[in-house]
Amino acid sequence: MQQRCFWVTDSKLYQDYHDNEWGEPVYDDKTLFEFLILETFQAGLSWITILNKRENFRKAFDDFDYKKIEKYSETKYQSLLQDSGIIRNKLKVRSAITNAQLFIEVQKEFGSFSNFIWSYVDDKPIVNTFHKREDVPATTPLSDKISKDLKKRGFKFVGSTVVYAFMQAVGMVNDHTTNCFKYPS
């Protein structure tokens, strides 16, 4: 049996996410936006809750098409609040629309959101050497810095913990523990 990171349960969905997505570098703006939105909705909840609702989020949010989301009307906002397939938090739903608008502003300024976000790590993942749960931080000085920058730009639900989870998810940092089969050798 393959050894995985401490947080992976015996859920097939969780294992597939860990084995095939988590920590893999993502440079595509559409996927980066998806993870940004999912991480903001995850704030205060477990990641498995979000994974279980991921397909519902894709349907509700037009497959995370930020160009569509930025134009959502009040009617669409209200319909999202009635969608039991997603997290129906008023502030988080509103933030998805706001963050889509700001995501596009960042693209205009930097050519892509990927250029902006990956510049924080010189376009290559930081590979950490964590051995156990206690070693893995919830935030770092870098996630603090990115969070502060995103908040200054007006992004919502992008505290340092959310930003660090985003960095892990999109492979800006590789936090597979050293005993995990996905740890780079």
Automatic annotation (TrEMBL):
Keywords: DNA damage, DNA repair, Hydrolase, Metal-binding, Zinc
Coiled coil regions, renumbered to chain: none
Presence of keyword Chaperone: no
EC number: 3.2.2.20
GO biological process: base-excision repair
Superkingdom of source: Bacteria
Keyword Hydrolase (UniProt): yes
InterPro entries for the chain: Adenine_glyco (IPR005019), DNA-3mA_glycosylase (IPR052891), DNA_glycosylase (IPR011257), Tag (IPR004597)
Binding site for Zn(2+): C5, H18, H176, C180
Catalyzed reactions: Hydrolysis of alkylated DNA, releasing 3-methyladenine
GO terms assigned for molecular function: DNA-3-methyladenine glycosylase activity; metal ion binding
Record's function text: Hydrolysis of the deoxyribose N-glycosidic bond to excise 3-methyladenine from the damaged DNA polymer formed by alkylation lesions.
This protein's name: DNA-3-methyladenine glycosylase I
